C-alpha cells in the first residue's frame, strides 16, 4: 500500500481537501479510491476583538500554510516524496459569517465568524421581511446589521463571501461558492438552485434609501453545485498555499463548501431521509428533507446539501468546549497527584463512567454556554453548573450531566422536526470529537433524539476528508452519477457504520433532564445579565 500511495502522489493523482474548523485547520490527501493517505493540521483559536469573534487574515494564511507544510512533512516521512501536483483540490470552512471586500480586493472589516450573536436586530427584521428564518450567523444578517449600525465600510462593498469562498477566491481568482455554503449567505431557491430572487429583490428595496452603488446580487459569489468546475489553482494561489514553491499550478478546484456540507458528505448523508450530527466545538444536525416544513421555525435553519437538496439544520453554538474544560480539570488533578497523564485514557474513563450514572443525571444540570446560544435565546454565554442539595451528586452523574449538556440544544431543535413536523429519517450518522470515545456520545445522542445513531470508522477523518471527496467527485465521477449515488456506490459501498439504538430508560431520563434544563434556564439568563 505505501508504494501505491507513493506512486499516486508522484504521478499527481492525489486529491487534497482542506477544512478550516473552529480550532483546527486540517488537510487530508486521498488516493483514487478515496482512501486517506496523508494529512496535516494546524491548531488555532478565534480572538474576541472589539466585542466580535474573529480570525485575522494573518492567522488565516499562516494557518493554512502551516497546515500544508505539515501535510508535506507527513508525505515525506511516510513516502519519501514531495507533492508537486494534485488531481483536484477542495476548500471548506466553518459556515457563514461575513468577509467584505472593496473593488480592489481590500478587506473592509475584520472577518466576523458564525459565533457572533450581535446581529439580532438584523436577523429579526429580515426573518419578518422574507417570512423565512434568518439566523444570526448568516452573511445577510451581518451585512444588514452593519448597515443598521451605520458602519462606514458598507458603502464601499464590492464583494462579500464566507471563509471558504475567500480562500477559494485567493487560490483561483474565482468568486464562487458551493450551494450549501451559499444557502447560509442568503436563502436559496431549491428549484432554481440559486439565491432566492424574491428575497434578493426585497433586500434591495429595503436598503434602497441608503443610496449604495451596489445591488445585493452584484456582491454575492456565484452559486455552484457539487461536481461543477470552480476554477483552477493559479500560479499565485499555488505559492500562497505552498510557500516551499514545490506545488505546481493547474489543479481543478470544486466549489468551496461549509463544514455542514462536508459533514454530510463524510457521513454519507446527502440523500433524502438521511441525516448527520456533527459534535465538536459547536454542534449541528442536518436532516435532508423530502418536502418543505409547514412553517418557519426560529430554531431551524433551512440550508442545502452540496448538490442542492433541502436540509433542516439545527445549529448550536456550544458543544464540547465546557466538557473539555472539566476534563482538563481532572487532568490537572491527576498531575497534582503525580500520576502520568494520558488524555485519551482520562476521556475514556470519565465518559464510560458517565454511563453508570442515573439516566436523568440525578437532577444535575449543566449549561455549556461559552458563547451565546440562539436556540435558547441567549446573546451571551456563561458556563454554569446547577444543582440543589437534594440532587444525587457524584462523579458519574456530574459527567453525564455535562455530556447531556453538549447535545441538549440539539434535542430542543430536533424535537420540533420529529414531534411537530413528523419528519421521517432512515439513518442518522454522528461524527466529531464527542464520538471519539466509542459508544458513549453515540448512546447519549441516541437518547436525546430518540433515534438510532450510527458512527463510521471514517468519522474521525472529518470534514477535510469530506471536502476531498467532493473534489474527487469533480474529477472521478466517470459514471456520471448524482452525488448521493456516487457516495453510496463508489465511496461507502454500503457501509453504514455501527449503530446504537436508544433504550426507553435513557430516553425517559433525557426527557427529565431537559425538563430540569428548561426549568432552570432563568438561572443561566440571570448569570448572563450579571455582567461581571
Task: Describe the fold and architecture.
It is globular, with a radius of gyration of 23 Å. Helix content is 39%, strand content 17%. Helix 10 crosses helix 15, helix 13 packs across helix 14 and helix 13 packs across helix 17 (504-519). A hairpin with a 3-residue loop joins strand 1 (15-20) and strand 2. Among the domains are: 268-316 and 422-500, Nucleotidyltransferase, domain 5; 321-411 and 504-527, no CATH class. The chain is α/β, with parallel strands linked by helices and 532 residues long. The protein has 18 helices and 22 strands. It has a 7-stranded mixed β-sheet with strand order 16-17-15-14-20-21-22, sandwiched between helices. The protein has a 5-stranded mixed β-sheet with strand order 3-2-1-6-13. Strands 4-5 form a two-stranded antiparallel sheet.
Amino acid at each position: 500500500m505505501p508504494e501505491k500511495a507513493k506512486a499516486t502522489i508522484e504521478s499527481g493523482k492525489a486529491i487534497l481537501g482542506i477544512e478550516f474548523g473552529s480550532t483546527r485547520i486540517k488537510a487530508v490527501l486521498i488516493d483514487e479510491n478515496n482512501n486517506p493517505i496523508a494529512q496535516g493540521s494546524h491548531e488555532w483559536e478565534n480572538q474576541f476583538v472589539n466585542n466580535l469573534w474573529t480570525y485575522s487574515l494573518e492567522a488565516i494564511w499562516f494557518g493554512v500554510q502551516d497546515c500544508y507544510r505539515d501535510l508535506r512533512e507527513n508525505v515525506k516521512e511516510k513516502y519519501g516524496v514531495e507533492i508537486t501536483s494534485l488531481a483536484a483540490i477542495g476548500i471548506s470552512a466553518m459556515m457563514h459569517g461575513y468577509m467584505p471586500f472593496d473593488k480592489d480586493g481590500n478587506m473592509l472589516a475584520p472577518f466576523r465568524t458564525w459565533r457572533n450573536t450581535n446581529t439580532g436586530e438584523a436577523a429579526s427584521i429580515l426573518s419578518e421581511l422574507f417570512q423565512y428564518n434568518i439566523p444570526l450567523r448568516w452573511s445577510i444578517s451581518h451585512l444588514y446589521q452593519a448597515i443598521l449600525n451605520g458602519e462606514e465600510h458598507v458603502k464601499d462593498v464590492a464583494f462579500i463571501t464566507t471563509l471558504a469562498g475567500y480562500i477559494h477566491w485567493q487560490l483561483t481568482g474565482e468568486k464562487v461558492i458551493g450551494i450549501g455554503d451559499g444557502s447560509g449567505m442568503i436563502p436559496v431557491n431549491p428549484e432554481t438552485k440559486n439565491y432566492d430572487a424574491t428575497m434578493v429583490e426585497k433586500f434591495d428595496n429595503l436598503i434602497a434609501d441608503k443610496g449604495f452603488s451596489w445591488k445585493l446580487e452584484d456582491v454575492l459569489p456565484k452559486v455552484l453545485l457539487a461536481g461543477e468546475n470552480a476554477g483552477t489553482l493559479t500560479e499565485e494561489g499555488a505559492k500562497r498555499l505552498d510557500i516551499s514553491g514545490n506545488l505546481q499550478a493547474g489543479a481543478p478546484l470544486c466549489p468551496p463548501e461549509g463544514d455542514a456540507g462536508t459533514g454530510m458528505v463524510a457521513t454519507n448523508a446527502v440523500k433524502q431521509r438521511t441525516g448527520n450530527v456533527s459534535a465538536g466545538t459547536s454542534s449541528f444536525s442536518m436532516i435532508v428533507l423530502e418536502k418543505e416544513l409547514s412553517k418557519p421555525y426560529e430554531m431551524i435553519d433551512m440550508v442545502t446539501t452540496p448538490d442542492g437538496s433541502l436540509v433542516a439544520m439545527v445549529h448550536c453554538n456550544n458543544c464540547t468546549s465546557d466538557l473539555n474544560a472539566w476534563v482538563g480539570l481532572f487532568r490537572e488533578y491527576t498531575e497534582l497527584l503525580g500520576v502520568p497523564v494520558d488524555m485519551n485514557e482520562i476521556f475514556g474513563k470519565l465518559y464510560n463512567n458517565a454511563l453508570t450514572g442515573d439516566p436523568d443525571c440525578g437532577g444535575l444540570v449543566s449549561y455549556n454556554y461559552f458563547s451565546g446560544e440562539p436556540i435558547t435565546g441567549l446573546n451571551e454565554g456563561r458556563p454554569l453548573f446547577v444543582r440543589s442539595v437534594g440532587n444525587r451528586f457524584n462523579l458519574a452523574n456530574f459527567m453525564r450531566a455535562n455530556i447531556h449538556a453538549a447535545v441538549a440544544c440539539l434535542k430542543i431543535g430536533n424535537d420540533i422536526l420529529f414531534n411537530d413536523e413528523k419528519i421521517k429519517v432512515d439513518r442518522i450518522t454522528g461524527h466529531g470529537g464527542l464520538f471519539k470515545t466509542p459508544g458513549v456520545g453515540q448512546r447519549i445522542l441516541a437518547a436525546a433524539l430518540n433515534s438510532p445513531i450510527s458512527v463510521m470508522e471514517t468519522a474521525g477523518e472529518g470534514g477535510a476528508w469530506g471536502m476531498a471527496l467532493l473534489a474527487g467527485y469533480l474529477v472521478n465521477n466517470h459514471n456520471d452519477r448524482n452525488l448521493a449515488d456516487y457516495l453510496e456506490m463508489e465511496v461507502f459501498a454500503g457501509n453504514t457504520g455501527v449503530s446504537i439504538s436508544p433504550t426507553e430508560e435513557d430516553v425517559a431520563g433525557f426527557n427529565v433532564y431537559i425538563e430540569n434544563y428548561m426549568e432552570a434556564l432563568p438561572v443561566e439568563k440571570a448569570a448572563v445579565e450579571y455582567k461581571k
